[in-house]
Design brief:
- The protein is an alpha/beta fold.
- Helix content is 41%, strand content 15%.
- It is built from twelve helices and eleven strands.
- The strands form three sheets. A seven-stranded parallel beta sheet has the order 3-2-1-4-5-6-10, sandwiched between helices. The chain has a two-stranded parallel ribbon with strand order 7-9.
- Strand 1, helix 1 and strand 2 form a beta-alpha-beta unit.
- Helix 3 runs parallel beside helix 4.
- The longest helix has 19 residues.
- It is globular and about 55 Å long.
- The two termini are 37 Å apart.
């Protein structure tokens, strides 16, 4: 077994770190605030943009798995420095750099999203994400680092709370049998990437040389609308049919005057107003991880919320 560094301990970072530890690897988690040690996991209080300290943490590591993200409204300003620091640490130590990416870099697309599409986003968050990967890929192609990006759609699953579109605003109301309000068209097909599958893909590509040097989509089930997913959650929860309503665009705009998060969501509103479908067939043809069956996803998510809802707020 080997040592790994995981940057960030949000839902994705925590799930990834715990998966690595369960596999017998030694894991160092880098966050600004640190944390309580867990079996196989050491927490280091360190700003990931402090390149010197991050490099020290990465010495001897097989891989650096970058799962951190700035506050949503600060992505464009802070994401480049995070990626640059991780690239420098990877170059200095020889650790494989595994970036957890998303789908913003493509911008609006007609048809399923595949990894060979151009990164043509016009919005600041999408451009920042795209440029981060271009930076890492250029260094990889120069032979200075070994890098790979794993791109996920909207997270769904245990541990996903306020940051998920099928999480804090959806699951608690479903458990109470109350109506759900969602962004965009509740009947538009949408791809949801199960959080444990994200972690499994990150860990898998970290150890696969044939994965490096390109981006991959996390194995993801066929798209399902918010209304369909709420229906599955409600059936599993035993709360009966739950009404689902979309937030009208004028209401969202008005709410954005008071909420930085809602204001920033304007950039990606297109992802919810029409079909937003991920094609992960390239990954599934090359590697072992497969998307978790939807009934398992739904049950595990509800079980987590039942246990953690008071703490999750």
């Amino acid at each position: 077994m080997s040592s790994h560094v995981v940057i960030g301990f949000g839902p994705a970072g925590a799930t990834t770190a715990r998966l690595l530890a369960a596999q017998g690897h030694a894991v160092t988690v880098v966050t600004r605030s640190g944390g309580r040690p867990e079996p196989g996991i050491e927490h280091l209080a360190c700003d990931a943009t402090d390149t010197r300290r991050l490099t020290e943490a990465a010495r001897g590591a097989a891989a650096v798995l970058h799962c951190a993200a700035p506050p949503y409204h600060r992505w464009a300003q802070e994401w480049p420095a995070l990626v640059a620091s991780a690239c420098t640490a990877a170059e200095a130590t020889g650790a494989v750099l595994v970036l957890l990416g998303n789908l913003y870099g493509y911008g609006p697309v007609d048809g399923p999203l595949t990894e060979d599409l151009p990164l043509a986003a016009a919005g600041p968050k999408g451009r920042a994400r795209a440029e981060g990967w271009r930076t890492a890929l250029a260094l990889h192609e120069q032979g200075r680092i070994r890098a790979v990006e794993v791109r996920a759609s909207d997270f769904f699953g245990p541990g996903v709370t306020d940051g998920g579109h099928l999480a804090g605003r959806v699951v608690p109301p479903v458990l109470r049998g109350r109506p759900v309000t969602t962004l965009g068209d509740p009947d538009a097909p949408h791809s949801w990437t199960y959080l444990p599958d994200v972690a499994a893909a990150l860990v898998e590509v970290a150890g696969r040389e044939d994965a490096w040097g390109r981006a991959w989509h996390v194995p993801t089930l066929p798209a399902a609308s918010v209304r369909e997913m709420v229906g599955l959650l409600a059936v599993q929860a035993g709360t009966g049919p739950v009404a689902v309503r979309g937030i009208p665009a004028p209401v969202l705009s008005a709410a954005g005057l008071f909420s930085p998060l809602l204001r920033e969501l304007k950039e990606v509103r297109y992802q919810f107003d029409r079909p937003f479908v991920v094609d992960s067939s390239a990954y599934e043809a090359a590697f072992q991880v497969r998307p978790t069956p939807v009934d398992v996803q739904v049950k595990a998510t509800l079980d987590w919320w039942r246990e953690h809802a008071p703490a999750a707020g």
